[in-house]
Every structure is written in C-alpha cells, then in structure tokens.
Amino acid sequence: MQRQVLACRRLGKFDSVSQGLKKYGINRDTNSRRSKTSSSKIKNKKIRIFCSRTVTKNFLPFVRSVWPEFKEGSHHKIISKKFEDIASGKLKRLIINMPPRHTKSEFASFLFPAWFVGKNPKAKIMQTTHTGELAIRFGRKVRNLMDTQEYKKIFKTELQPDSMAAGRWETSQGGEYFAAGTGGAVTGRGADLLIIDDPHSEQDALSDTALDQAYEWYTSGPRQRLQLVVQ
Description:
Strands 2-3-4-1-5 form a five-stranded mixed β-sheet, with helices on one face. Residues 1-7 and 11-17 have low confidence and may be disordered. It contains ten helices and five strands, in the order ααααααβααββββαα. A hairpin with a 2-residue loop joins strand 2 and strand 3. By secondary structure, it is α/β, with parallel strands linked by helices. Helix 1 packs parallel to helix 3 and helix 6 crosses helix 7 (132-146). The protein has helices at residues 2-10, 17-23, 38-57, 59-66, 74-88, 104-119, 132-146, 149-154, 208-220, 222-225; strands spanning 124-129, 159-165, 168-171, 176-181, 193-197. The protein has two domains: 2-57, no CATH class; 74-225, no CATH class.
C-alpha cells in the first residue's frame, strides 16, 4: 500500500506518505504484510484509481509518469496550467516564446498532443513546423509513446492498426493526427488542436518575405481548419 502512495506522491499529489495514507484512513501499524484483508484491497484499488485520475486530469503528473528523468522548472508549471486550460476549452490560443533547450517543443509538440489525444480519443490534431520532415518526426514520437505500456496504463486511446504512418495516423476511436510543413497542403483536414512549432527557420527569422509567406499560409490554410475542441 505504501509503495502505491509513494508512486502517487511522485505524480505530485501528496506532500507526504502520511498524507496519502490519511487520505484513505489507512493506519501504518495495521498496513503490514500480515494484513491482507478485503478492506485493504479496496483501499488499494481506490489509490490506484485516484492516481490514474490525477495523471489524466493534470499535464505535469502525466509528464512525470512517462518521462522519469524529467527535471521540473518553474516555467513548466506555468506552461502546464495553460495546456490544461486549452484541454478544458478555457483557452483558445497560446503563444510560447522561450530560449532554445527549455523543453518548449518537447512539451508542445510531443507530450501535449499525446496527453490531449489520450483525454480526447476522437480529437483531430494538426502538427506543423517549418519543414514537413520535422513535423513527421514529432508525429512519430507521439505515436511511439502511445504504443508503450506506460501510456496504455494511463489512457484507453488506441492507435488504429491499419493507419499508423509517422505523420498521418488515426485512433481506433476516430481521432486523427496530421503533420505538415509550412506551406504544405492541409485541405480536407480538420483540427481540434493546431500546433505550429517554429513556422520558419532561424535563418528566415529576419526575412520579411519568409514571415509574410508563413502568415499567408496560416491564414489561408491551418486557421481555416480549426473546429470545436472535442469534450
């Protein structure tokens, strides 16, 4: 029992083992190996369910559960809260500006879509970057994570066996993932979640022409694909 509370504590729910045990009225003295009563098993199950709900409801606990080496910073908490607001429909648009190597893409283009489609198996996700190759690489990472046992223990969302290409895959529940580069065709695709990760390269950052082209592509393409978030 205590091992399960410790696991939940690692997900950030309990401040201490005692608090976790107290949550379910569990006495340390009676919670020994000798005490294997039906009551103990029921409490065991409650904690497993409670921990599972924490991971599916909150983004950071999900990150910790699938990325054991993750080192949390104050900016991660801010971003995570915004992601949760997007998932709940409270926030419609979000721009993240951070220096390189601060987990922006790892969060926004990898872990967030994996968590989002886990919560919303029917969701349609569109991932875009300045090159199609990079967008497809993100799609491969999300797909591969969803196919792990760790992920399957958290969410019931499943990949459609006959539609698992790295940049274009579907869920068994009707969800879709589509990856495209800036300027790429997105006709016929819908998006409950649209992610634009670096729509232009560092070399084009000071080019007015490149910036104008990226904006025109966004307004005439991806922005027209947005639809209501699946609840």
